[in-house]
Amino acid sequence: MIKLEDGMWNKIWVPDVFFRNEKRADFHSVTVPQRLLRLYSDGRLWYVSKITAKLSCPMKLKKYPLDTQKCPFIFESFGHTLERVVYKWLPNSVEKEPFEMPQYQLIGWTQRDCSQNYTAGAFPCLQIDFLLKRDIGFYMIQVYIPSILIVILSWVSFWIDIDAVPARVPLGLLTVLTMTTQSAGANSHLPRVSYIKAIDVWMCMCLLFVFASLLEFALVNVYSRKEFNIWRRTNSMMPVQNGRKHHHHHHHRHGSDGAEEEIPLKKVVTTPSGISLHMNGKSDYASLREDEKRFLIEHKQKARHIDKISRKIFPVSFILFNVVYWVTYFMLPDD
């Protein structure tokens, strides 16, 4: 075996290999051209060159970020057909050195012959498919765990009193806006594909849960006010302007002897909620106040019962969604 001097590769024939899916490639020339040419006693030549190449890898992102990608590396002859040149894999033609990638794990590779016919003829071709599994650790920390915490935060409103509107409404709006911002950030560095990705399903469902929590409070609030309005109509009471808490209207008439007498006509009372009511008859204020207080407690208990049901339905539904989501995308085969 003889190592030939540098530059001898320019004086002999070398294969016209090119990378079909190349985007950019460079020879290494620091500090000397990193090429090797050896001549064996049986006449064989061994030519080696070190190249750094940037290759295109068509990705399918339906399972992103739980996906496994197949990235090809394609060698093909530019001008020689199969009648003159044949490419074959050597034993142990691919060797893996210890290295780590920030987002992927190299789990294996496959080799095959990709020779095909063109208009000018059949050209030799070899292809290596590298199997890259995306590391989910980054997405668990930056996407999944924060979104789970936001959904759980939206359930806090179920434990806040229904009368605390200034507390429950901002909490619901804050979680909805936070989920919208997080969804936009998670997709900002991805190509705009026309199909639904796994992360889109996750973000949409989390947004749906926090939005449903906000709608639940609206439902409870409307239900409680509707019940009170129905109660007012069924008790034949006519609201008037707020006045003093307890005063009488009198009607004066003249008797047969010319003397005036007062006849009580109506009594106006103000309820604890600030509503003035005309009451016919001799019902006193104490009894009306107890009736209204009892009704307010009853219909608020009904509204609170909806909150109690939501405390169970929302967590159980979210857990079921998680089971279906993770099982489906982990067991779904890659295309």
From TrEMBL:
GO-annotated molecular function: chloride channel activity; extracellular ligand-gated monoatomic ion channel activity; transmembrane signaling receptor activity
Gene name as annotated: LOC106156006
Localization per record: Postsynaptic cell membrane
Region of interest (Disordered), residue spans: 241-263
Record bears the keyword Transferase: no
Classification via PROSITE patterns: NEUROTR_ION_CHANNEL
InterPro entries in alphabetical order: GABAA/Glycine_rcpt, Neur_chan_lig-bd, Neur_chan_lig-bd_sf, Neur_channel, Neuro-gated_channel_TM_sf, Neuro_actylchol_rec, Neurotrans-gated_channel_TM, Neurotransmitter_ion_chnl_CS
Membrane-related topology note: Multi-pass membrane protein
GO cellular component: chloride channel complex; postsynaptic membrane
CDD domains, per the entry: LGIC_TM_anion
Gene3D superfamilies listed in its UniProt record: Neurotransmitter-gated ion-channel ligand-binding domain (2.70.170.10), Neurotransmitter-gated ion-channel transmembrane domain (1.20.58.390)
Organism name: Lingula anatina (Brachiopod)
Keywords, alphabetical: Cell membrane, Chloride, Chloride channel, Disulfide bond, Glycoprotein, Ion channel, Ion transport, Membrane, Postsynaptic cell membrane, Signal, Synapse, Transmembrane, Transmembrane helix, Transport
Occurrences of domain Neurotransmitter-gated ion-channel transmembrane (ranges): 143-226, 241-326
This protein's name: Glycine receptor subunit alpha-2-like
